[in-house]
Amino acid sequence: MVMFTCSVQHAAVNSGQDFYGWMPNGPSTMQEPPPTKKGEMTKARIMAALPDTQITISSMEVVRLLSTRLSDAKFLLDFKEEYFTEDGPCTEIKTFKSQLQHLSNSIKERNQKLDLPYTYLDPACVEWSVDI
């Protein structure tokens, strides 16, 4: 559970933040209340609701910092450390790595058919931990 939470779950909620770099995808604040009836939104109301330039810039800076990978990032498929020498753990690690590689290959194959590939949960792109 700890391994999942510190790698895959963290990647699921953190990795897609780069899409918030374009403010309308996820405005950090809204300056007007949401509409209460269908069909009453206009372009002018939408523009009035979006945050000002300074808030947008600050939000974009935070998103960039949180979504930038570190130069020394380690990913699930890069697991090379040998903390165990016993046959039992080594066999389990080898099996786990094989399953991760199979999953990564499946994701890559699926993504070839997509206009916008989803790579955030590909084991080749999921970091070992929650490095920031």
UniProtKB/TrEMBL annotation:
Q: Which SUPFAM superfamilies does the UniProt entry name for this protein? A: Lipoxigenase
What is any one GO biological process for this UniProt entry?
Answer: lipid oxidation
The segment(s) forming the Lipoxygenase domain are: 1-132
Q: Looking at the keywords, is RNA-binding present?
A: no
> What is the protein name for this chain?
Lipoxygenase domain-containing protein
Q: Which InterPro entries match?
A: LipOase, LipOase_C, LipOase_C_sf
Q: Name one GO molecular function term.
A: metal ion binding
Q: Which UniProt keywords apply?
A: Dioxygenase, Metal-binding, Oxidoreductase
Question: What Pfam family does this protein match (any one)?
Answer: Lipoxygenase
Q: Which PROSITE patterns has this protein been placed in?
A: LIPOXYGENASE_3 (PS51393)
